[in-house]
Amino acid sequence: MMITDREALEELAQRLEGAPAIALDTEFLRERTYRAQLCLLQVADAQGALCVDPLAVTDLTPLRAALGSAGSEKVMHACRQDIEVLLPAVDLVMPVFDTQIAAALTGMPAQIGYAELVRRVTGRELSKAHTRTDWSRRPLSGEQIDYALDDVRYLLPVRDHLVAELTRLGRMSWLTQELAALQDPRDYSVDPEEAWLRVRSLKGLDADRARLAQSLAAWRERRADERNRPRGWILDDAVLRDIVIRVPRTLEELADLPDMQPGFVKHNGSEILGLIAAAAVPTVLPRVSPRGAPDPQKTALVKKLSTLHQSVATELNLPPEILATRRDLEQLADGRQDGGVLSGWRREVIGERLLAAL
Predict the structure, then answer these.
(1) Which domains does the chain have, with CATH numbers?
(2) H-type alpha helices, 3-113
(3) Residues 288-332: pLDDT tens digits?
């Protein structure tokens, strides 16, 4: 049940080669690191399920032939983090089948958990006894290994059920489009120059502050990568925003920011001031004020679109958020027509109706 040596790993690799579908799951830690540490790899095919111990077999190269084959579908649940971990470890190659995405397109909750999906499809109740297990500790008990194997044991039959249901509903083309969004390996790494776009508190900045935010977030991303430490350990999001909003020009001003740690100023203060200077942020900047009262006309329009949105979701028996987000509706109300609701299958089933309502 647990592969801990190279010979057994090579045997598994040979067994998986040519398999039309392979179920995968991972257990990893990243609370104290920038890069996730792969602690356990669970694999299942038509012959059954096995665990691979990456802490014992540190070189997973033998699996690359099977998991790097475009002829084999990799079946996972809520797979983005798993793909992020597996890409550098085994050169994972698409296609991928995500059972969470497929389940939502059949009408189940958008963020349905694996255990609930298995219960609905197979009637089996999965144990929750080891949800907080530290998977980096060894040895793992037989009960822990069996718990981990449950995460892949049912993926292939669940996948078959979902394919049958989506075929019945005429929605397989929808799934193909949704899964295509998972295919680009670049989506699973962070470009330091675009890291600031992932920080919600940095939205809506004026051009000068946005330039500084990009520079500071890129510095933080590179430093976190170099030291293999979480971004927040390098510089907290709230402190990052304070720097961007207040633009301190001296070490004293930097140290006076709320929640600023003296150690950060001591070790990084001069470098941060250098980034501020390089960003050429002018001395006089527009005030950052709270968001004003909402535009009544826009509010009414979004409400109208939302009513139609809910109606279409009910008609199709789909979670509303699968069709469109509130942000999609707000962008339409603003006159923007570049959102996801106006592309692919969504345009056909709801996008055109939203445009007509406008």
Answers:
(1) 2-188 (3.30.420.10), 192-278 (1.10.150.80), 296-357 (1.10.150.80)
(2) 6-16, 64-67, 80-90, 99-105
(3) 766 656 788 999 999 999 999 999 999 999 999 999 999 999 999
